[in-house]
Amino acid sequence: MAQQQSARYDAILLSSFGGPEGQDDVIPFLRNVTAGRGIPDERLEEVAHHYRHFGGVSPINEQNRQLKAALEAELAARGIELPVYWGNRNWAPYFGDVVARASAAGHTRLLGLVTSAYTSYSGVGQYREDFEKATAGTDVAIDRVREYFDHPGFVQPFVEGVADATAELAAEGIAPERTHIMYVTHSIPNTAAKASGAGFEDRVGLGEGGAYVAQHLAVAAVISEQAAPSSPWSLVYQSRSGDPRTPWLEPDINDAIEELAERGQTDAVVIVPFGFVSDHMEVMWDLDNEALETAGEHGLKARRVPTPGVHPAYVAGLVDLVLERVNDVPDAERPHLTALGPWPDHARIAGGAVVDQAAESLEAASR
Question: What is the distance between the terminal CA atoms of the chain, rounded to a whole angstrom?
Answer without folding.
Answer: 37
